[in-house]
Amino acid sequence: DATGLKPSVVGDARGVSDLDRSRLRPRLLKAHQAIRTAHERGELGFIDCPQKDPESILSWAAKKRAEGFREQVVIGIGGSSLGSRALYEALAEDPHAGEGSADGLRTHFTENIDPVGVARLFDRLDLSKTLFIVVTKSGSTVETMSKFWLAFDRVCSELGEDKARAHFVAITGPKNDGLRALADHYGFDSFEVPTNVGGRFSVLTPVGLVPLALAGIDIRGLLAGAKRARECAALPDFEHNTLLQITADIFTLYERGVDQIVMMSYSDQLLPIADWFRQLWAESLGKAKDRGGNSVHVGMTPIKALGVIDQHSQVQLYMEGPNDKLMVFLEVASFGRELKVPTRPGLPASLAHLAGLDFGDILDAELQGTRRALQEAGRPTSTWRFDGVQADDLGSFIFAWEFITALMGELFDIDAFDQPGVELGKKLAHGLLGREGFEQWAKLAQSNADA
Ligand code: PA5
């Protein structure tokens, strides 16, 4: 199929039949139309991302690397970081080892504001060779801007303000009085996050493409894969549009009480993509809606798991606990690396069959065993197969799930692109941190704290 992936939902007692799928067909077609209409109105800019030409970003990145930088620190959080981190960890040669080079910068991501983690990272950087990529669409996220200011202060102190400018790149909205204003003031190189692309849908904009290009990742391949999934997403008929079918399957399961979705990667490299997915799914679809004065709460809790590690930790629950989870397996056909159990004599008879086996084949057998066992137990499963861990397939995967999320939003009849539930906590924190105009929130936070 056009996504280059062959996902299927399989199950027994609670699986999805062709009949279920066709029952939802009219609703899916309506949802598809609603997305098309919104896109024609200029909304849902994520749909345009695969069409964008990456060449200007690639040539800018090559020029920047030629200036002698060897490391980059991506400062961002949520949608401004999770996607680029996942793709870097999946696609970089060896993401946590070695020194960067003129072909690809060694990349660090800092998301949290924990002083220990931040200090550890900042203290070991060679600032003269480090580029800071500051990513915040709003331009004002507290965690991101605090760390940007720390980095700027350190680089200015070490190299002087004039030289420091070249060490900072801003990726932010076209207009804001935070990072955009500072980038203009200091003359940083900068890129725009399009206003019609939401944070968690923005990995295929400069938010992801700029740091990935600097790291030497194949962003052309990423976009080519995304473009294939986009073509699949655009197909108007249900029978050929895999993404409409997958969404119908997921929604059918949801209506039957499956309200958790476990993304279980059988590849270390792909595990961080489950973090990206968790945010996309949770923040987009976990919503309260008002129905005649009553709040109705919708959403499916996304969970990440790693095979085989979680076979020894979570699978007991998945097998025999409540039947409320859809398992989404990430399977890799070829790891591109052979590693064998030595044939050296000495293994006891009960383990002798292991001699000479490839680690990738062991992992695969573990996946097949676990999946089959879950199916035997009547648990719904779905598998996304990757030929290898490569940019093209990941581009398809990303666009596919962005589109499925948008469709699910329509089926839930909610706005998948806002996040009102995180606003109150932010206001209270701003109040506690002494931001002007937020005194009432400080009071509320304080009263709660005292209670
Ligand atoms: O999806 C979203 O909009 C959020 O998760 C944001 O990405 C996150 O809050 C970071 O926001 P910003 O890019 O404005 O710093």
UniProtKB/TrEMBL annotation:
Source domain of life: Bacteria
GO molecular function: carbohydrate derivative binding; glucose-6-phosphate isomerase activity; monosaccharide binding
EC number: 5.3.1.9
Claim: Isomerase is one of the keywords in the record: yes
SUPFAM superfamilies: SIS domain
Cellular component aspect of the GO annotation: cytosol
Entries under InterPro entries matching the protein: G6P_Isomerase (IPR001672), G6P_Isomerase_C (IPR023096), Phosphoglucose_isomerase_CS (IPR018189), SIS_dom_sf (IPR046348), SIS_PGI_1 (IPR035476), SIS_PGI_2 (IPR035482)
Broad EC category: isomerase
Record's catalysed reaction(s): alpha-D-glucose 6-phosphate = beta-D-fructose 6-phosphate
Pathway participation: Carbohydrate degradation; glycolysis; D-glyceraldehyde 3-phosphate and glycerone phosphate from D-glucose: step 2/4; Carbohydrate biosynthesis; gluconeogenesis
GO BP term, pick one: gluconeogenesis
Alphabetically ordered keywords of this record: Cytoplasm, Gluconeogenesis, Glycolysis, Isomerase
Localization per record: Cytoplasm
Residues the record marks as active site: 283 (proton donor), 312, 426
Function: Catalyzes the reversible isomerization of glucose-6-phosphate to fructose-6-phosphate.
Stored HAMAP family: G6P_isomerase (MF_00473)
Family that this chain belongs to: Belongs to the GPI family.
Protein name, per record: Glucose-6-phosphate isomerase
Origin organism lineage: Bacteria, Deltaproteobacteria, Bradymonadales, Bradymonadaceae, Bradymonas
Gene name of the encoded protein: pgi
